[in-house]
């Protein structure tokens, strides 16, 4: 057609706004929130999801006061191989390894230990990799081992563990 000027359309990727209007940066009516889709306020940008503008709780997770342990005045119960211990048995006890998780595991004694905390954890005894002796670095599930039983704040555990 003669005399009609055709314009070539070029997409502009600047300024995508919450309203879905591509290329209309700052155009009147481009964003229902009144902005151009950038910066603070309005829209669904990243600033709406973090807690910089207020405590919305989206960035809170485990251990940050959001869910589970560690929130408002609650603390995690004591655990681990560094707790103070009191030995329960004078002679070594025999047991079978029921579970091994890489750095710790659980042993079921062949003869149940008579102690007030023995009913805890279905009679299983905690064992840490740091309590293994004789150059052992891991225990095999189903194998027998000998150990002394100790008691700490988290329950019964095995120390001086000798595997077979």
Strand-helix topology:
Elements (H helix, E strand, L loop, with lengths): L85 E2 L5 E8 L3 E6 L15 E4 L15 E9 L2 E9 L1
Parallel strand pairs: 4-6
Antiparallel strand pairs: 1-5, 2-3, 2-5, 3-4, 5-6
Structural descriptors:
5-stranded mixed beta barrel; single chain; mainly beta
What does this structure look like?
- Helix content is 0%, strand content 23%.
- With 164 residues, it is an all-beta fold.
- Strands 2-3-4-6-5 form a 5-stranded mixed β-barrel.
- A hairpin with a 2-residue loop joins strand 5 and strand 6.
- The protein starts with 85 loop residues before the first strand and ends with a strand.
- The mean pLDDT is 76.
Short description:
It contains no helices and 6 strands. The chain is mostly beta strands and 164 residues long. It has a domain at 86-163: OB fold (Dihydrolipoamide Acetyltransferase, E2P) (Beta Barrel).
Beta-strand portion reads 15-25%
Tally of individual helices: 0
Q: Give the CATH architecture of the domain at 86-163.
A: Beta Barrel
Shape: elongated
CATH superfamily of the domain at 86-163: Nucleic acid-binding proteins
- Average of pLDDT: 76
| Strand/helix succession | EEEEEE
What is the multimeric organization of the chains shown?
single chain
Strand order of the largest sheet: 2-3-4-6-5
Major sheet: 5 strands, mixed, barrel
């Amino acid at each position: 057609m003669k005399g009609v000027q055709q314009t070539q359309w070029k997409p502009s990727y600047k300024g995508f706004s919450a309203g879905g209007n591509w290329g209309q940066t700052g155009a009147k009516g481009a964003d229902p929130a009144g902005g151009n889709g950038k910066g603070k306020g309005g829209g669904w940008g990243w600033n709406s999801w973090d807690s910089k503008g207020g405590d919305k709780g989206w960035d809170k997770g485990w251990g940050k006061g959001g869910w589970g342990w560690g929130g408002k005045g609650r603390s995690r119960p004591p655990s681990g191989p560094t707790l103070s211990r009191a030995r329960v048995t004078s002679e070594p006890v025999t047991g079978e390894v029921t579970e091994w998780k890489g750095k710790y595991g659980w042993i079921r004694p062949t003869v149940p230990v008579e102690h007030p905390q023995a009913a805890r954890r279905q009679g299983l005894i905690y064992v840490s990799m740091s309590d293994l002796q004789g150059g052992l670095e891991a225990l095999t599930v189903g194998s027998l081992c000998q150990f002394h039983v100790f008691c700490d704040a988290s329950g019964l555990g095995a120390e001086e563990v000798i595997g077979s």
